[in-house]
Design a protein that fits this description.
The structure holds 2 protein chains of 2 kinds. In chain A, strands 8-1-2-11-10-9 form a 6-stranded mixed sheet. Chain A has helices spanning about 1-20, 25-50, 110, 190-195; strands at about 55-60, 65-70, 75-80, 90-100, 100-105, 125-130, 135-145, 145-150, 155-160, 170-180, 180-185. In chain A, a hairpin with a 2-residue loop joins strand 10 and strand 11 (about 180-185). Chain A is of the alpha+beta class. The longest helix of chain A is centred in the first third of the chain and has 24 residues, at about 25-50. Chain B is an alpha+beta fold. Helix content of chain B is about 45%, strand content about 20%. Chain B has a 5-stranded mixed sheet with strand order 6-8-9-11-10, covered by helices on one side. In chain B, strands 19-12-13-21-20 form a 5-stranded mixed sheet. In chain B, strands 14-17-18-16-15 form a 5-stranded mixed sheet. In chain B, helix 1 runs antiparallel to helix 2 (about 35-55) and helix 2 packs across helix 12 (about 280-295). The longest helix of chain B is centred in the first third of the chain and has 28 residues, at about 5-30. Classes of the chains: A alpha+beta, B alpha+beta.
């Protein structure tokens, strides 16, 4: 089960490469393929051993590691030109052209009050597919760097701490432990369904 | 097969047919002799009956059957078409709409009340009072008085393939049962050889004894849809007839039907051949009706929308390629991409034209309304239409029909005088409402013109002052007063009628039209009439835009909002407030950079774009003017729904996103957020 998932993931990365060959975003797609390839082997090893493991894409925002369920992630693209939309809250970074569709991009660091994402060469946009209010929304999230795809067994996910977390525990599904890092696992569905965000009419 | 899908087709088709029907009726009212219209009327009803029968919508079939019979008599000249009949037929049409709505769309049983209403309508039409189950009367269609019950023996041998054709013989027999009394049904399955049994074939034949007031032809009608390949014989049981002598009826029937009736055993097809003038080219009529549809393909709108989106994207990527070719200095590629872009643009124009629908159907729908309302109001009104083949984007057509309806109602109610008033004013008693559509410099113009009394300036002004819309000492030009009717809460009707006068009309009209990126103007001359002129874009998907930039962000201003552009030095702009002297007029302006919270310093030179703001002007200060461009509109999604001043986005040749400004809302938002 896990194996096929991983295969699909790497196939998806491959098709993306075909699509993006002529595109500056090409480099990033390559990176995401590397990511899933390197995980492919790890995945093979671990998936049989661990049951109910969930896969998360980890990334950094303002020095903190976050995780997003890979089921929500559609693709990762290189940071390009974002068109600012005037008179919107700071956590809306703007809109981008994703192969002909106009997709909103969020700066979650602003929403979490931990600063804001300053574009660098490593800045990426994680593109999510979320069902909000029974409609599919394609949403971009600005991150400082994308790290890796990890497997987390259920036992490795703990409830968010009520005190002391950098991020409102409401926004988290839990905290993952990996080696010496704590990964804040984001409840993206919940975050983007907030009334204040405005996807709901 | 998915029955729902077939039902959708049925619904769409019957809607079209009913429109045709109404159309023909309204024309017949003017020229009652038009054989074409009588025929098309008959065909419409006939086809609806036929297809309803296939779905088993019993009440629809029963009712249309009566109407069809009467129309049949009309065709053969047995009955005449008085004005009363046109009204009855129009009501019948409405009744059919109602029946189809209940039986087909909602899949409910028709209430007894509605059935009674149907019978009343039939009675009104035929001038006879029919009990349920009785067929319509009249001439050739064979005498039908209640006492004239005849007994028939019907033998049906079905074609083995009937089930494959999707026909259920039982539904026909059930229907026949509703027309009289089925005394006996004997099923014969001799042809069934168990060893050779194929479950997809039909092996049975029927022997039916039936009693009713129908004629052989009417019974043949019942089985018409299965008649093409099955052998059906219908004969009257004369022994029964003899025991109940009914001289007149039989005589007429025998004479009128000629030899066909005398044949003891006639297949339906033969009966038709024997008839000369009578209905029974019906079988050929259905194909005729279909002929007209042959040239068209019905497709779902969303498929078209998808296609248009894809083509829009193709336009954008084409532009990207040619831009890159230029950037990397590849003349070969630039040349071939140039020819590709031409092809894409051709493709786009063609795809766009697929969405185009003629305005005629919408216009025609109003004809009925004009007729009914003018009768209600006791006014004589003739409606003229012009430019019915003018094409508009389907989305626009759908959204323009309500505003048009309001305008026409208003003209009928307020604009047009009663015949007496008209006579007193020396006008023709019969008023005219003209609807016309035409192309004019890249947009479509729709006009509603009446020759009524025109707008009453004083009344409008008084009303506006009474309702606090303007203050009593405001000086207004005549034109400004007339345009007050588009303001919310103004209705000049003395009393509220059921047609208009609730004061919600005209401002809603204006808003709806503005939502379609159109605008409405009016011209009026007291005593002569009023013209409402609606100007609409050709399509909603593409606009002519004017591209500007503010720092490193691009914005598109719809070109039809732009009046002129003026270059200005920032320093000179800011004296005493955000307004300038533009050739003697005061023009207030909005600095987009400031309004959009742009922090960085403005460039030395900025430009001022003069845009329309309602009937006045306003200025927008931007950094650079980038020029005109055709803009494919991309919606921004619900996240930005509440955003005032931005109506959508577009993707530029460079692949970057530019936002489309909604100028009136932008200025409203700026006014609302202004601090002094």
């Amino acid at each position: 089960m896990q194996l096929t998932n991983m295969e699909q993931e790497s196939q998806k990365a491959n098709t993306e490469i075909d699509f993006l060959k002529s595109n500056p975003q090409f480099e990033m797609a390559e990176k995401s393929q590397e990511l899933s390839e390197s995980n492919d082997q790890e995945g093979q090893a671990s998936s049989n051993a661990i049951e109910n493991a969930k896969q998360f894409l980890t990334f950094f925002m303002r020095g903190q590691v976050f995780g997003a369920s890979i089921l929500d992630v559609r693709e990762i693209i290189e940071f390009g030109k974002i068109t600012k939309v005037p008179r919107t809250p700071a956590y809306i970074a703007g809109v981008i052209n994703l192969r002909g569709s106009v997709v909103p991009v969020f700066d979650l660091a602003e929403l979490f009050h931990i600063g804001h994402i300053e574009p660098t060469a490593k800045t990426c946009i994680i593109v999510l597919d979320l069902v909000i209010d029974s409609e599919i929304e394609v949403i971009g999230v600005l991150v400082d760097t994308v790290d890796e795809v990890i497997d987390l067994p259920e036992s490795g996910i703990e409830l968010p701490p009520e005190l002391g977390a950098k991020v409102n525990p409401e926004y988290l599904i839990g905290v993952g432990k990996s080696l010496d890092n704590f990964i804040l696992l984001l409840d993206l569905q919940k975050i983007f369904s907030l009334d204040t965000i405005g996807f709901k009419s | 097969m998915n029955l729902d899908a077939v039902k959708e087709i049925f619904l769409a088709e019957s809607e079209e047919l009913l429109l045709t029907m109404e159309d023909s009726l309204l024309r017949l009212e003017k020229e009652p002799e038009s054989a074409d219209d009588i025929n098309s009327l008959f065909r419409a009803v006939h086809t609806i009956k036929g297809s309803s029968g296939m779905f088993g919508f019993e009440q629809t079939v029963a009712f249309t059957h009566h109407v069809e019979n009467w129309l049949d008599d009309l065709r053969s000249g047995e009955v005449q078409l008085g004005t009363g009949k046109i009204s009855s037929l129009l009501k019948s049409k409405d009744h059919i709409v109602e029946l189809i709505d209940i039986e087909a769309r909602k899949a409910q049983t028709v209430s007894g009340d509605l059935i009674d209403k149907g019978q009343e309508l039939v009675a009104e039409l035929t001038g006879e009072n029919l009990g349920s189950g009785a067929a319509s009367s009249g001439g050739e269609n064979i005498v039908s008085s209640k006492s004239n019950i005849k007994k028939f023996i019907i033998e049906i041998s079905l074609t083995p393939k009937i089930l494959q054709h999707g026909l259920d013989p039982l539904s026909f027999i059930k229907y026949l049962g509703g027309q009289g009394e089925i005394v006996l049904v004997r099923v014969n399955h001799d042809s069934l050889d168990i060893a050779q049994y194929d479950p997809e074939l039909c092996y049975i034949s029927f022997y039916i004894e039936f009693m009713g007031v129908l004629s052989e032809l009417q019974i043949a009608d019942v089985f018409e849809f299965m008649a093409s390949e099955s052998q059906i014989s219908i004969k009257e049981d004369t022994t029964y007839q003899a025991s109940q002598p009914n001289l007149g009826g039989t005589a007429v029937s025998d004479v009128s039907k000629g030899e066909a009736a005398k044949k003891v055993e006639t297949t339906v097809n033969e009966t038709r051949a024997g008839e000369v003038s009578k209905p029974l080219e019906k079988a050929d009529l259905a194909p005729v009706a279909q002929e007209a549809h042959k040239k068209f393909i019905r497709i779902e709108a969303f498929k078209l929308d998808k296609l248009i989106n894809l083509v829009g994207e193709l336009v954008i990527s084409g532009a990207t390629i040619s831009q890159q070719a230029e950037h990397h200095k590849l003349p070969d590629i630039a040349e071939s991409s140039g020819s590709m872009i031409r092809l894409i643009e051709d493709l786009r124009d063609n795809v766009m034209s697929v969405r185009m629908v003629q305005i005629g159907d919408t216009f025609r729908r109003f004809e009925r309304m004009v007729r009914d309302i003018s009768q209600d109001l006791g006014k004589k009104v003739r409606m003229q239409v012009k430019g019915v083949d003018t094409e508009l984007d389907k989305n626009i057509i759908e959204n323009i029909s309500d505003p048009l309806l309001h305008l026409i109602r208003n003209s009928l109610d307020h604009g047009i005088e009663t015949p007496d008033e008209r006579k007193a004013a020396g006008k023709n008693e019969e008023a005219t409402i003209r609807l016309s559509a035409y192309h004019d410099t890249g947009s479509i113009v729709l006009e509603v013109i009446d020759d009524g009394r025109g707008l009453n300036k004083d009344k409008i002004l008084k009303k506006a002052i009474d309702s606090g819309l303007v203050s009593a000492n405001t000086q207004l030009t005549d034109e400004a007063i007339y345009y007050l009717i588009f303001e919310p809460g103004l209705s000049t009707a003395q009393s509220v009628t059921n047609i208009s006068g609730r004061g919600v009309g005209m401002d809603v009209v204006r808003r709806n039209i503005e939502n379609l990126r159109g605008r409405i103007d009016l011209e009026t001359t007291p005593g002569v009439g009023t013209t409402f002129r609606i100007r609409l874009p050709l399509t909603l998907a593409i606009i002519d835009g004017f591209l500007v930039s503010v720092r490193d962000n691009f914005f598109v201003i719809p070109l039809d909002m732009v009046i002129e552009c003026v270059e200005h030095n920032v320093a000179h702009l800011s004296t005493g407030g955000d307004f300038i002297n533009l050739r003697g007029d005061i023009l207030s302006f909005l600095r987009l950079d400031k309004f959009f919270n742009e922090k960085s310093e403005p460039p030395e030179k900025q430009s001022l774009i003069v845009v329309k703001n309602g009937r006045s002007k306003a200025g927008l200060v931007v950094d650079t003017l980038e020029g005109e461009s055709q803009t494919v509109i991309k919606p921004l999604g619900r996240l930005f729904d509440h955003l005032n001043g931005i109506s959508g986005s577009t993707i530029m040749g460079s692949g970057e996103v530019a936002l489309i400004l909604d100028v009136p809302k932008l200025i409203d938002a700026a006014v609302a957020s202004a601090t002094y």
